[in-house]
Amino acid sequence: MGLLNHLLGNATEVNLNDIRQEFEPILIPGEELETAFRIFRDKWIFTTKRLIMLDVQGVTGGKREYHSIPYKSINHFSVETAGTFDDDCEMKIWIKGMHEPIKKEFKRDINVKELSRVLADHVMNE
Fold it and tell me: Model pTM greater than 0.70?
């Protein structure tokens, strides 16, 4: 079922030990990994200071783009769940100084409410 979830784009929680080697070099002193989710090849990493959104690109996945969003820079965010005729969920994150939000679409089966809860916990407790 794990492979099927990845093919469908479902978010699954990632063991932090599995990603520590990749992400620790970009952490600042005092910053710790807290929670991580995998969405197909992409990852959302929640640290004590920011949200890191990894966008894996290309056929081989060799090209990677790391979006780093400090929690204190998030003005607000929204979650749109799937509807009857719309199979996709969507999360939008508005960053201070940006007119357009960062948008991420997810498949219907993703627990977008859990992602929203984790993000809210960090933003509201900043």
Answer: yes
